[in-house]
Amino acid sequence: MSESTPAIRTFPAPLVIVLTLALAAGLALGFWVQSGRITTADIKATVLTPPRELTGFELITHLGSPFNLDSLKGKWSFVFFGYTHCPDVCPTTLATLAQVDKEINRTKDNDQATQVVFVSVDPERDTPETLSQYVPYFNPAFIGVTGNPTDIEELTRQLGILHMRVDRDDSKYYLVDHTASILLFNPRGQLRALFGAPHKASEIAQDFSNLLKI
Amino acid sequence: MKTFVIIFMVLLAFTSHADTSIKVVDPWIPAAPPGASVFAGYLSLNNTAAEDIVITGFSSPRFGRIEMHRTVVEHGMATMTKQSILLIPARDSLKLEPQGLHLMLMKPTQPVALGEEIPFSAHADDGRTISFEAVVKTPTAP
Asked: Which residues lie across from A177 on neighbouring strands?
């Protein structure tokens, strides 16, 4: 019985070198291309893939104009749910959003139109008039939104926004527990990302910038 | 002579409460939008004494009602829990800051203006009162 010949012939040395170089080049190119690509792993916010669709709702802005699904289209929207009798979380978050707005507008490659919307979870006390004194204070372009409780509920229900009135001895000063996340809607009016508390303006601005690249 | 000694001892007993053992550091109020009826107050309380200090409340001629609260964000939801006391451990400090412990200032007697210094008193459970002024500053992102 004859010896079985080796199944693999020995490759000539130059060919081995060329192949190794080609492999190395291929790997390097792969890493280079991959490192420039942004994925959801680079983003601290919770990104919804696919973005979540909303159904209609009818609310009103602090200027008395309608605020509905169409109002969320055509630009990116940062939306926060709160109330004006909130001493700590709401003013702090609105101040943060004012800072986010500044940082986004500072970066030239962020060519996308944005808006910031504050939706009240306390429509009993937060009338359009109340909101018109409160919201623009943080940034004149910010939009305050309110409506009747059922209509507010229609929006919060879809988004999983929780809010609960906490009555106290002085009924005028009741508190409202509420979801503290900042929601980001894309220009199609779909929910794209959620920024959890505590909020850091520079992180939100960076996340937004990265989201535009995905 | 005895009366004098007794009076002296009583007065000495009062002075042994070193009021400098509680220091209020950097008290401030973020300016709020016009027409705001509720404000937040933030500050640090430093306790240099060997005993814990218990603060039972705050008062001010500028606010009809002041409560102490803690903001808690749990499962994404923000809630405020009223605190009946603030405990400052011995040789330690307690910080009231945005999204944490804070004063809830209600029933302002007049509008609160940026740059104003508003007088406050912190009340300890041993009867001591610490007076300080909080400055109204532009609200900033933390």
From this structure: A164
